[in-house]
Amino acid sequence: MNTYIVPLDENRVFVVDSACCDYSRDSQIVTDFIKKNSLTPVAVVLTHGHFDHVAGLPALCSAFPSLAVYIHANDAAFIGKDSCSAQETVLNDTEFEDFIPFVTNLPEPTKLLNEGDVLFSEWKVLHTPGHTKGSCCLYNSEKKLLLSGDTLFYGAYGRTDLAGGSDYEMADSLKRLHTELPEDVRVFPGHGKSGFLLPQAGKFWGI
Questions:
Q1: Which among 82, 173, 56, 88 has a CA at the least distance from the CA of 126?
Q2: Which of 66, 72, 138, 205 is 20 to 30 A from 183 in CA distance terms?
Q3: pLDDT tens track for 77-112
């Protein structure tokens, strides 16, 4: 699972996908790094609401009480006071039932994202459903960077067989990324190898 700390200006940063938690025994890695380097986190941006991307929210928000929490409107039910039931619909279909205690009492979202929103003046929200209804990518056109969450991996893409997943929507989202973005965009996904060029992601399924 990849968590990113993305620089903005001066010492400000935002965090993408708060994975670190007690379940994986790494709950303090992100917060310790931020504090050690005297960084100021302004927000955590969730590419989608699955348990492995949100379980670190309590540790982050406890360490930085003013931290904003962003998630796409279609995945908002995965966090907040009623999140446990939404998380259970996914966790009960996987081998990760033991994760359920770690996705209770998650903080409420501060901002609900939608297609076309621009965050921090340079990161555009691309709504890319398929893995979940609210899966999204963050695209920086100037720096040619794509934070793809679980939509796009190196030579693979996010699973579509869990609640809210869709083969049809995933195909449309992948096609969109490969037709709308330039080939020299570097991709930083939610899992696995990062920093690869966009064409390397799709070469295995012929997009």
A1: 173
A2: 72
A3: 999 988 878 888 877 766 666 666 667 778 999 999
DSSP-assigned states of every residue in 123-165: EEEEE-TTSSTT-EEEEETTTTEEEEETTEETTEE----STT-
Name the residue type at position 81.
K
**SS3 at position 61:** helix
The number of residues making up the chain comes to 207
108: phi then psi, degrees, rounded to nearest 5: -70, 150
Say how far apart CA 87 and CA 97 lie, in whole Å. Answer: 10
CA angle 71, 116, 81 (to 5 degrees): 15
Distance CA 44, CA 26 (A): 17
Chain CA centroid to CA 183, Å:
22
* Rounded Cα–Cα distance for residues 153 and 193 (Å): 8
- Write the DSSP symbol of residue 24: T
What per-residue string of b and e applies to 151-174 under the rule 16 or more CB within 10 Å gives b? bbbbeebbebeeebbbeebbeebb
Report the alpha-carbon distance of residue 192 to residue 190 in Å, rounded: 7
What phi, psi does 149 have (nearest 5°)?
55, -135
Specify whether the CB–CB gap between 181 and 197 falls below 8 A. Answer: no
